[in-house]
Amino acid sequence: MNPQKKMNESTSLLLNGGYEQKQRTDSVSSSFSLSFLRKTTIATIFAVVSVFVILTKTNQLRVQEDPIAVASMLGWKDDVHYDWEEFQHKYVIIEDDNTYSDEGILYLNESRAFRLLGDNDDFYYYQQGWEAQMNQAYCSVATMAAVLNSLRGDDTSFKLPMDPIYDPFYWATQHTIVDAKHNDCVFNALGGKYSAESVKHIGLGIGMVPDIMNCYLNSNGYVAIPYPANSTTEVEANDLKHIIVDALSDGRSRVVLNYDRGGIGQGGLGHGHWSPLGGYNKETDSFLIMDVAKYKHPPAWVKWMNLFDGVSTKDTCTKLLSLDTPIDWNNMDFTTILSIISPLCIPGYRGFVVVKPKNMYDDE
Ligand SMILES: *[C@@H]1O[C@H](CO)[C@@H](O)[C@H](O)[C@H]1NC(C)=O
Ligand SMILES: *[C@@H]1O[C@H](CO)[C@@H](O)[C@H](O)[C@H]1NC(C)=O
């Protein structure tokens, strides 16, 4: 079997998180079948990278031409996981350089980028609560915490969870909001205790994030609604855009997005990812992605077409059905873990989640 083909299959199950490096999209994977020449080029690069990994890392790693074998040698232990990420990272960059362009990205570390902000953009609400994801799989969790904290009005009518660390102040933290042990709603939304553990390793998809958000939103009169970017026509894509723009222009609503970094020209630093949107600028037709992986990029203005390229990608695991036995993430090898979770994953499109007051929703 062609090693690249196998690599593609073995890594296609990787999700929305810091192990985002391993996530493959349709657009990326389709490029694998482009040409024999390209395959051989990639095979050569793969061999060079393998040798590099072997030479620079421990001598427990032996020369392997088969990526699956490399994956199973590396396993999921944190100390070796970084080797795996590094390896994948190099592998992905090769594709992205040819496939995507970062033309049009404007980072919020330039004064002209600040000038695109509107007076009432959600960016300002996120100033109370937008924090870096605390581990590399928690992009969705940091995103949810940012949204909850951003809804904390001056009148504090929005009831946030309390993390004992900040007692007596209410504040959504990444520790508390996915704590399935102390919250039955979260326990159910995550699919029980064994599945809950998986969040730390593979992140969350659009099939689960709104349910978890609703555990905190519904009692406060808000609701989270998923909008998968499954549009097949330009008209449908425009309808979706209008929903997002309308929500961003309403001070009580928030929008978060689940996207592939490759689509917006940031593929060199990973793939499946979550972040809140901080605003829309009509003149430039761009959206402000407030990246919760603050250790990677500042917030970035991204044109609609690029944003749409990023969200209209497939996630192999939008939702993980309940695991009935625990996964020993530290001791099982990569291929074993994949074989357990693959049958429980529901694939689908990434997309947006709109958070808004319930009564606004009822009116429609
Ligand atoms: C797209 O997603 C929406 C919302 O989940 C769903 O109602 C619709 O059937 C989906 N369309 C396609 C073509 O899958
Ligand atoms: C702004 O951020 C971009 C993207 O991370 C980076 O390439 C650039 O060097 C940064 N510029 C400044 C002035 O820090």
TrEMBL record:
<feature type="domain" description="Peptidase C83">
    <location>
        <begin position="81"/>
        <end position="333"/>
    </location>
</feature>
<keyword id="KW-1133">Transmembrane helix</keyword>
<protein>
    <recommendedName>
        <fullName>glutathione gamma-glutamylcysteinyltransferase</fullName>
        <ecNumber>2.3.2.15</ecNumber>
    </recommendedName>
</protein>
<keyword id="KW-0479">Metal-binding</keyword>
<dbReference type="GO" id="GO:0046872">
    <property type="term" value="F:metal ion binding"/>
</dbReference>
<feature type="transmembrane region" description="Helical">
    <location>
        <begin position="36"/>
        <end position="55"/>
    </location>
</feature>
<dbReference type="InterPro" id="IPR038765">
    <property type="entry name" value="Papain-like_cys_pep_sf"/>
</dbReference>
<keyword id="KW-0472">Membrane</keyword>
<keyword id="KW-0808">Transferase</keyword>
<dbReference type="InterPro" id="IPR038156">
    <property type="entry name" value="PCS_N_sf"/>
</dbReference>
<keyword id="KW-0812">Transmembrane</keyword>
<dbReference type="GO" id="GO:0010038">
    <property type="term" value="P:response to metal ion"/>
</dbReference>
<dbReference type="GO" id="GO:0046938">
    <property type="term" value="P:phytochelatin biosynthetic process"/>
</dbReference>
<dbReference type="InterPro" id="IPR040409">
    <property type="entry name" value="PCS-like"/>
</dbReference>
<dbReference type="InterPro" id="IPR007719">
    <property type="entry name" value="PCS_N"/>
</dbReference>
<keyword id="KW-0104">Cadmium</keyword>
<dbReference type="Pfam" id="PF05023">
    <property type="entry name" value="Phytochelatin"/>
</dbReference>
<dbReference type="GO" id="GO:0016756">
    <property type="term" value="F:glutathione gamma-glutamylcysteinyltransferase activity"/>
</dbReference>
